[in-house]
Design a protein that fits this description.
The complex is a heterodimer of chains A (685) and B (560). Chain A is an alpha+beta fold. In chain A, helix 2 packs across helix 7, helix 4 (135-147) packs across helix 5 and helix 10 crosses helix 11 (395-410). Chain B has helices spanning 9-33, 37-40, 71-80, 95-98, 166-174, 179-207, 209-231, 287-302, 310-313, 338-353, 418-424, 532-540, and strands spanning 45-50, 56-61, 89-92, 105-114, 117-127, 156-160, 163-164, 237-245, 255-264, 267-271, 316-319, 370-376, 383-389, 427-434, 450-456, 460-466, 487-492, 495-499, 502-509, 513-517. Classes of the chains: A alpha+beta (685), B alpha+beta (560).
């Protein structure tokens, strides 16, 4: 029996899956930010009631790490670094994204300056010791941290990517002096070169450790105390599970836990629909996100930034160097505010009305028209069936605000203005979808689009048309996709190690040794997860570049490539991949290996789930037709059907509105919608 | 030019988004596949899209100095190659023959065609690691003529009808100390242009040429409208300010930058009459650079949200006497051009502080602190170059302290990681940290300067560096104190040798420590008005001195 529990910012989603029948059940409750374990157990109790199991396997996605990072200043952590380098963390790379802003502030530094302690030691770029570690200074640092009640510390030495022995030694001394101290070591958390990014990743880990440690401990203790028949695993940003114990040691791996699960759901639903090339698109209240699935595999990234602050983009946040599902985010959502600027230009966002005050039509006090209001005023939302009728949308107020604040000043009709807002919001989302495809060297036209989130299915077809995408999938649990993704996850552990050498001068024995060590570590971790040898799978890859480049391309490989002939083949793949990504390659130039990577995957048995068809409606008749406004066509009459009244296999031609408690699907003219055996909507042109 | 058709606001916004996406996509190609650290790690490149009348309508640039700089060279291209064919690419780098900023900025243009008609142009530029000249990195601080600074390229057709001219490439490579990196970067510039044209053609088929033309017309008109609106909110008047550059590295005298900035209704005139004459040393700016600097300051102070295009510049005029350091004539060397531009920023902000005190900042580190340490690897016969650009403290703001050690204004580049420096070059960095108490005191204090010590591991090396604000520190505003000036110091056998701000090929030997100390920013408001909690926090963090607690403490001496 599997249970996925996804704690998001506002709602906690639960999906229970009965492996015998394949039936899925979705449930939502409110997130309790003051104590996240409360909503966790509300969700778990629901699952226990639903499944009455002898054993539950729970996969948990959580915002606890992301929240802790936002609030890190309240309980500071320490840092031990090479003498002369305590400011590396604060200086950063000092590149600014908003170049005209005189009033810019840097993100608050992860460790305050008086807790960044220095110790004399030094390695050179080859890992050779230049100056031995002065152990007395480490002991002294341990005492300072203990006296100040600091629970967590990072150890970040220059060139430790090449040799971590000084860092290991420092940890040993720390634990001798202060056994309760949580020590995060840079050569273990992120053994890659570029000191600022490695230090930042390690300090993020140190900042998160106390909070994540306590939270997961509380959950494990409560499960134990209540003698619950449960086994809990935690979702990571890389889309794989890890044990709670590993998550306690490496919490930097779980920062993007929830969004990652959303892409897993897309991968899973896509596979059921025989779609191996998918853009996973998710649109909610304040942001839209996009990920990519190619040949059934999720595209990953090796570095990203988190908590950029108030400007909605993470480009100025804290860098984390660790494999994660590649997600592009734009601040365009249902709550994005539309406005006319002083030069008479129609703008959408980046300000968002969020959930409060929210769109005008929510009547929570929002005064400025939003994308949701625009959807309402063009007939795309049903005022009496929002959230299944739990909330009545105020059409009059939305109309009034749209007329006064947008339509009037631009000399447009209300519906033209609303339509314009949708098109501009779409243009911003198209930029995100292009980022995840075109900028990574892929043609969106050869992908299908899978749209989830409350607002995703309303905008999906317009986006698909702009990118020449001919097939769109709306999952049966569009509003609970992250929870669904959780129960489809495998265990996964990524490990890497810097290895700098020109590809034609590689010491094969050394490279084989590096991979053997990485594989040993990944295999060992999987064993501890409870994965048996035969369910383990290891994928190898190398980050390579042309000599002199400072940006690497990841090239997949296997053990068989660890010969001179094999590396020759690998070089060919590198040229091809470089050509695909950047439109040029240089087969005569020397290639340099920079980093060896391994992913250890523990595969779990796959199940084919379905949402049981259910009739929530007493009446089986169609509602009265809707009137929907389209650019170039004006108001068109459209069928309006509840999703649950939509017979499986029945084709519906656009224009039509398919409504559901958690989302509304707009079928545009020229599109045909069907629902498949698992309950997913499939739309084709 | 076709008569403009009215375009609806929605299409306009959608097209604007699409144009920026194309400019950014070209930028990503250049950035990701670049070989030289200047482009890859320092992001010194830009891309732009021009309409059929060669007016800039969209750009992507991370470096403010590159604002609008692709416009003037395109005019030169059109004069010399009036009938460009599909698949042609023109390359250039010369400030006098092609209106480019300086020789390392390789600049390219490609015409865009759709249905047989020329529908616009794409431009891009990227700073190359080395294009010859008397010093590695083409940074010869003691150049006295443009001919000393490297290979001069007038507009040349590097690609004709899609066919690369191998002879041109060979010539370029032969003139660089880093031929492979140079060739690699040229190829990424070319690839970006090719991709950009394909994307623009897609837009043409989607919207039609007429609509695109109407959009470019309105985008330019819109930016002009918004710029005028913002200017009209500044009180009318003439505001004067002056600043000094330490010297040009050849002769010793200070060089004044003077401005009289006049606001009259919705127009601004910046008159630099009284500014020092162009100098023998390399720190000269051509009018293209002066234009970009004025534009940067005005957009930041007016409203950075206004889309950057030709329209923004129409209400702003510049008077820069020909032959002055802000409008140099051939063959004045320009490799150090960023320095007068840096100083122009502080001069303009000092003038604007009198009109809009809440929108400006005090003086900042004010130069690029460019350091190039190099040597010859005897075994391989190749040169190695450790190229470093260091930042310093921001000026304090009306509501906040200056940022500590952060790139400011015209400057926006990433530092090179210490671990990359050490794995690429025979040097070891011994420290990289803030200099305590280097920001000027004030109600809000200036940002701190940085210290970076580099140990030389090779038997022999040399350092070329271009610094400033070693004599004239960053100024404070409204009672704020100036920041500490910068310094280069060589520590040899325990003795400190102070070097001048501009040095060329100063010999270093194994065991020398080259110590970079960058400038702190100026304060804003009087120190007496500083919130004591801020003083305590700085003392706890070791960023300032205990003495700051006493408000009657005399101003800090400036260590010049």
């Amino acid at each position: 029996m599997r249970v996925g529990i996804d704690i998001g910012g506002t709602f906690t989603g639960v999906v229970t899956a009965d492996e015998r029948s394949g039936d899925l059940v979705l449930f939502k409750c409110l997130t309790t930010p003051e104590d996240l374990s409360r909503c966790f157990f509300t969700a778990l109790d629901f699952a226990i009631k639903e499944l009455a199991p002898e054993c539950l396997s729970v996969v948990h996605g959580t915002t606890v790490a992301a929240n802790a990072l936002l609030e890190h200043a309240e309980s500071p952590v320490g840092m031990l670094t090479t003498s002369g380098f305590r400011d590396v963390l604060e200086i950063g790379r000092h590149f600014r994204r908003r170049i005209y802003d005189f009033f810019l502030e840097k993100p608050r530094v992860l460790v305050p300056r008086d807790l960044r302690l220095e110790v004399i030691e030094r390695k050179d770029a080859s890992g050779t010791t230049i100056t031995p570690l002065q152990s007395g200074a480490v002991r002294n640092a341990a005492r300072i941290l203990r006296d100040r009640n600091i629970r967590s510390v990072s150890v970040c030495f220059i060139n430790s990517y090449a040799d971590g022995s000084h860092e290991q030694e420092a940890r040993k001394i720390f634990l001798e002096e202060y056994p309760d101290l949580l020590v995060s070591v840079s050569s273990e958390v992120c053994p890659e070169y570029r000191e600022f990014e490695r230090f930042s990743t390690t300090c993020v880990n140190a900042v998160l450790r106390p909070v994540v440690h306590d939270y997961l401990q509380q959950i494990m203790d409560m499960c134990g105390a209540r003698r619950l028949p449960t086994q809990v695993a935690i979702m990571q940003s890389n889309g794989g599970m890890m044990t709670p114990e590993d998550a306690q040691a490496f919490p930097v791996q779980i920062v993007e836990s929830g969004p990652a699960a959303g892409v897993l759901a897309a991968q899973y639903v896509g596979a059921l629909c025989d779609e191996l090339n998918l853009i996973a698109f998710d649109m909610r209240g304040t942001t839209a996100k996009a990920g990519l699935i190619r040949n059934g595999r999720i595209e990953m990234k090796s570095e990203y930034r988190v908590c950029g602050g108030v400007h909605g983009d993470d480009s100025d946040g804290y860098p984390i160097k660790a494999p994660a599902i590649d997600l592009v985010e734009v601040s365009a959502g249902g709550g994005s505010i539309a406005w006319v600027d002083s030069g008479g230009r129609l703008r959408v966002g980046p300000q968002s009305a969020g959930a409060k005050p929210g769109p005008v039509c929510y009547s929570f006090g929002g005064q400025q028209p939003t994308v949701t209001d625009a959807n309402l005023l063009t007939g795309r939302l049903e005022p009496t069936y929002f959230l299944g009728g739990q909330m009545l949308l105020a059409v009059e107020q939305a109309h009034h605000s749209m007329r006064n604040m947008v339509a009037g000043p631009l000399d447009l009709s209300v519906e033209e203005a609303a339509m314009g807002i949708l098109e501009i919001a779409n243009a911003q989302m198209i930029r995100a979808l292009k980022l995840i495809t075109v900028e990574r060297g892929f043609d969106p036209a050869s992908y299908s689009l899978l749209a989830s989130g409350g607002a995703g299915p309303l905008h999906a077809l317009a986006l698909a048309e702009a990118l020449s995408i001919s097939k769109v999938i709306i999952p049966a649990v569009a509003g609970g996709a992250s929870a669904l993704g959780l129960i489809t996850a495998n265990y996964r552990h990524d490990f890497s190690r810097s290895f700098l050498a020109p590809i034609d001068e590689v010491d094969l024995a050394a490279l084989t040794g590096v991979f053997r060590a990485l594989k040993g570590r990944a295999g060992q971790t999987l064993l501890q997860d409870g994965v048996s040898q035969r369910d383990m799978e290891f994928t190898y890859s190398l980050d390579c570049r042309y000599v002199g480049q400072a940006y690497e391309v990841n090239v997949p490989m296997s053990e068989a490539h660890l010969t001179h002939a094999g590396l020759e083949k690998l070089a060919q793949s590198f040229h091809k991949e470089h050509e695909r990504l950047f439109s040029h390659s240089h087969p005569r130039d020397t290639i340099e290996i920079v980093l060896a990577r391994i992913a250890g995957i523990g595969t779990l048995q796959k199940f084919k789930y379905r949402t049981p068809a259910r009739k929530s409606h007493a009446s089986n008749t169609e509602s009265s037709p809707a009137q929907i406004y389209f650019r170039g066509c004006g108001w068109l009459q459209a069928r309006r059907i509840h999703w649950d009244d939509w017979a499986r296999g029945e084709s519906i031609e656009g224009p039509a509105l398919l409504t559901r408690e958690d989302s509304t699907l707009l079928v545009s003219p020229g599109w045909i919608a069907k629902v498949d055996a698992q309950g997913n909507g499939v739309l084709t042109q | 030019m076709k008569p403009a058709r009215k375009v609806d606001p929605v299409t306009l916004e959608v097209v604007r988004n699409a144009l920026i996406a194309i400019a950014q996509q070209m930028g990503v190609i250049i950035w990701k596949s670049a070989r030289s650290t200047v482009i890859r790690e320092m992001l010194d490149f830009s891309t732009a899209i021009f309409d059929s009348s060669a007016r800039m309508i969209a750009q992507s640039s991370a470096v403010p100095l590159q604002i609008l700089t692709l416009g003037p060279p395109l005019k030169v291209v059109l004069r010399e190659f009036p009938d460009l064919k599909p698949g042609d690419v023109i390359l250039m780098n010369d400030p006098y023959l092609a209106d480019v900023q300086h020789l390392p900025d390789f600049t390219m243009f490609r015409p865009m065609f759709f249905g047989g008609e020329r529908v616009g142009f794409l431009g891009n530029m990227a700073h190359q690691i080395d294009c010859g000249g008397r010093a590695p990195g083409s940074y010869g601080g003691d150049a006295t003529e443009i001919f000393h600074e490297g290979l001069r390229i007038p507009p040349v057709k590097i690609v004709a009808g899609g066919q690369l001219n191998d002879a041109v490439e060979a010539l370029l490579k032969a003139n660089s100390r880093q031929p492979e990196k140079l060739a690699g970067d040229i190829h990424s510039l070319l690839a970006a242009l090719e991709v950009g044209e394909k994307e623009f053609q897609k837009l043409c088929s989607l919207y039609g040429l007429g609509t695109l033309e109407a959009c470019s017309e309105e985008l330019i008109a819109y930016s002009e409208r918004r710029t005028r609106q913002e200017i009209s909110r500044i009180p009318d008047g003439t505001y004067c300010f002056e600043q000094f550059i330490d010297g040009d590295g050849v002769s010793d005298g200070a060089i004044p930058i003077r401005v009289a900035l006049t606001v009259e209704r919705d127009e601004v005139t910046t008159d630099f009459t009284g500014t020092g004459p162009q100098c023998k040393g390399s720190i000269n700016a051509t009018l293209a650079m002066t234009r970009a600097t004025v534009q940067y300051v005005m957009m930041a102070v007016l409203d950075p949200d206004i889309p950057q295009n030709e329209g923004c510049f129409r209400p702003i005029s510049i008077i820069a006497p020909a032959g002055s350091i802000l409008n140099a004539r051939s063959p004045a060397p320009v490799v150090g051009r960023v320095l007068p531009c840096h100083r122009m920023v502080d001069t303009l902000l000092g003038a604007l502080a009198q009109a809009v005190p809440n929108r400006v900042m005090a003086g900042y580190y004010g130069n690029s602190n460019i350091i190039s340490i190099s040597g010859l690897n005897q075994e391989s016969g190749r040169h190695w170059v450790a190229f470093i650009i260091d930042v310093g403290g921001w000026g304090a703001r009306p509501t906040a302290d200056g940022l500590d050690g952060y790139s400011a204004h015209m400057h926006n580049i990433q530092n090179v990681p210490i671990e990359i420096l050490e794995s690429d070059s025979p040097v070891r960095v011994e420290r990289y940290e803030f200099i305590a108490a280097s920001g000027g005191r004030g109600k809000f204090r200036g940002g701190l300067g940085l210290r970076r010590d580099i140990l030389i591991l090779a038997d022999e090396a040399e350092v070329t560096a271009l610094g400033d604000r070693f004599k004239f520190p960053a100024h404070g505003l409204f009672g704020g104190e100036p920041g500490q000036p910068g310094a280069w110091v060589v520590i040899r056998e325990g003795k400190e040798i102070q070097l001048p701000a501009k040095i060329t090929a100063f010999p270093l030997k194994k065991g020398d420590l080259f110590s970079i100390r960058t400038q702190g920013g100026g304060g804003y408001g009087r120190h007496e008005d500083r919130d004591p909690a801020r003083i305590e926090r700085d003392i706890r963090d070791g960023k300032t001195l205990e003495g700051d607690r006493k408000f009657d403490h005399p101003p800090r001496p400036i260590k010049a």
